[in-house]
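Morning F.,

Quick status update on the modeling queue. The single chain you submitted on Monday has been processed. Sequence for confirmation:
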Amino acid sequence: MRSPIPALVALSKTVFIDRGNRQTAKLAFDGAARVMREEKQSVYIFPEGTRSYTTQPDLLPFKKGAFHLAVQAQVPIVPIVVANYSNILHLQSRTFTGGKIPVKGHHFLEVSMC
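Structure tokens below.
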């Protein structure tokens, strides 16, 4: 049986950012900003830049790319907070148990060209 993941990625217009290559990352962000403006496309970005595997409710430092993208595309930022869910899904120990993951949306933040 073939995985549905590649089709889902294509349909969702996922943009992958190669953070190790500044030039290709900038090109990817330029394209994403254009699509966001022209097609009124929303994007989800995890500003920490990577997954956190901690079991504690900690944040990693935010990367700047998401905020630069919002300014470049001239779109608001809508903060959405997802609680630490390591008690439900912990990839390092390969454990998954049922439960609820609190998610909270906040008022959007307007951006302007700096």
